[in-house]
Amino acid sequence: MKLYDYHKREHHNSWILKHCEVLIEEAKKNFNSSLVLYAALEARNLLEKTEYDVLLCFSDKEDWGYIKETAKMKNGLDTLNKKYKALNYRYQTFSETFLKVISNSELKTFDYSNSGILQSKLSQYLHIYTLSANELEFKSDFIQNGIIVVNEAIDFIKKYYIKKDEKLTFGIIDFSTLEGSIKVEFDNWKKSASFDTDALFEKLKKINDEENSGKKYTF
Description:
Layout: H1 13-30, H2 33-57, H3 64-72, H4 76-102, H5 112-123, H6 141-160, E1 162-164, E2 167-169, H7 180-191, H8 197-212
Antiparallel strand pairs: 1-2
Helix pairs in contact: 1-2, 1-6, 2-4, 2-5, 2-6, 3-4, 4-8, 5-6, 7-8
């Protein structure tokens, strides 16, 4: 099965990420400044889409309509991230820690701060009407720095995503399936102000050892 077709846009993150890589490769091969600008647009789109997807993962379905409409507004993602950030952190760190206990897979906490920095860097390649022709030449510092920034965004996403069956994805555990002592720890973690994930790991590991014989799963 072909996972990427340059001429057929797919609305999933693996396709957009691959498209960014291909655009940069083609830009360097053909000394094409326009492809660098296009790659910057796609890289920013990917970062924003990932933030949006994360927000959906950590919110109730009844909030999805509000999230969708707010995200469309100016600075909508910033507004949403500020509203849900604390809750997102609790959910993400619990997912990340719990999965370390019960499997060899890995989930990572999304770095909103770094994502914001990268989006800011990429934005200068979306608004280019004040630039001179010389600044937009392929060998210019502006375009060469653009290649660097796009690659930084690509590396950032790759470190966050999990590669499985040639696709890059991310996710969280299904919190509705938690029960018993694990659910108690999750409820405590949500209400807690602690950032000590090592202590959380030890608690969850002890529960898994005592109640599940230390069993691990493959996802």
